[in-house]
Design brief:
Keywords: ATP-binding, Nucleotide-binding. The chain is built from 11 helices and 14 strands. The protein is an alpha/beta fold. The strands form 3 sheets. It has a 6-stranded mixed beta sheet, sandwiched between helices. Strands 2-1-4-5 form a 4-stranded antiparallel beta sheet, covered by helices on one side. A 4-stranded antiparallel beta sheet has the order 12-13-11-14, covered by helices on one side. Helix 3 packs parallel to helix 5 and helix 4 runs antiparallel to helix 5. The protein starts with a strand and ends with a helix. The structure holds adenosine-5'-triphosphate. Adenosine-5'-triphosphate binds next to strand 2 and helix 1.
């Protein structure tokens, strides 16, 4: 296994940031840690990259124990923290050179690994990192995390605050890195990115809710979901929440995702009820569960 986590717990005074976390990441896998702010993702990353001690449990990364063999781990992993790790006053090239030097390598030696990513920011190599756009900073931070050819790459919310086009490009880059045999553990609060991982762990309040492939996770969703729309979104949500047979009601883009507590649900009956709430232009259609629906159901 590339990453093997056994019963890890960590608290900050009264806050239980991680509770009894156990899972494994296979060599070459692109594994996603999916959860909202405060779920404990950063705490787990810091433990796995040897920057923080767990209160309980153990973990191996690239075959090394995170406590006893921390030096070996530091040479074997790349870490891109959530808040950028770049030196704002150094140029693009100076940042990359700095990270290469501390790992005893050079940009030239491992250029092949970062080429795809670095060529996109190379035209700005004399610009200070602080003056780059979010997408460019992200590419530079990824190049810096890769420059010593790590076996395992940790990416903590790499696409937060990055525009949609750069986000898509970033995930394409991750797929290419995966093909080069690098194991990747990536965290994200964006549920749509979860579908791009080989397997995901849904995490909330320091606990793992479920671990599986994205496809299997949505298959486990226990109910039929309906897309409901009407002329007034706010009144629609209020009306559905007041409906005596509702099981769940979540706004989802231009629709509301609705599930009913009964097994013999009749959409026409719901439509008639919503009309009594002065709603019009009502549409109720079956839809497939998404990872976000599953997360909301498990997190209840
Ligand atoms: N140094 C600290 N002292 C006290 N509480 C902390 C500390 N670091 C994290 N926490 C708390 O531990 C919990 C988990 O935080 P963590 O940063 O690991 O979550 P996260 O999923 O990475 O979220 P975020 O995206 O907001 O960083 C949160 O409740 C957070 O407030």
């Amino acid at each position: 296994m590339s990453i093997s986590i056994t019963n890890i717990s960590k608290s900050y005074k009264d806050v239980k940031a991680l509770q009894n976390i156990t899972f494994e990441v296979k060599p070459g896998e692109l594994f996603g840690l999916i959860g909202p702010d405060g779920a404990g993702k950063t705490t787990l990353f810091r433990i796995l990259t040897t920057l923080l001690f767990a209160d309980e449990g153990s973990a191996l990364v690239a075959g090394f124990d995170v406590v006893k063999e921390y030096k070996n781990i530091r040479n074997s992993v790349g870490y891109m923290p959530g808040r950028f790790s770049l030196y704002q006053d150094l140029t693009v090239e100076e940042n990359l050179n700095f990270f290469a030097t501390i790992f005893g390598t050079s940009i030239e030696e491992n250029y092949d690994l970062i080429k795809d990513i670095y060529v996109q920011i190379e035209p700005f190599k004399n610009r200070r990192a602080g003056k780059l756009s979010g997408g460019m900073k992200q590419k530079l931070a990824l190049s810096c995390a890769l420059i010593h050819k790590p076996k395992v790459l940790f990416l903590d919310e790499p696409t937060t605050g990055v525009d949609p086009v750069s986000r898509k490009e970033f995930w394409e880059m991750l797929k290419r890195l995966q093909l080069k045999g690098i194991t990747i553990l990536v965290s994200t609060p964006y549920m749509d990115e979860a579908a791009l991982c080989d397997r995901i762990a849904l995490i909330q309040d320091g606990k793992i809710l479920e671990i599986d492939t994205p496809k299997a996770i949505v298959k486990h969703y226990p109910k039929q979901i309906f897309n409901v729309s009407a002329n007034n979104m706010y009144q629609l949500i209020m009306g559905l929440n007041d409906y005596e047979h509702k099981h769940s009601v979540y706004p989802f883009g231009e629709f509301v995702h609705y599930t009913d507590s009964r097994t013999d649900f009749n959409p026409e009956e719901l439509k008639t009820y919503l009309e009594t709430k002065n709603l019009s232009n009502i549409h109720i259609d079956k839809t497939a569960a998404t990872i976000e629906d599953t997360f909301m159901e498990l997190a209840k």
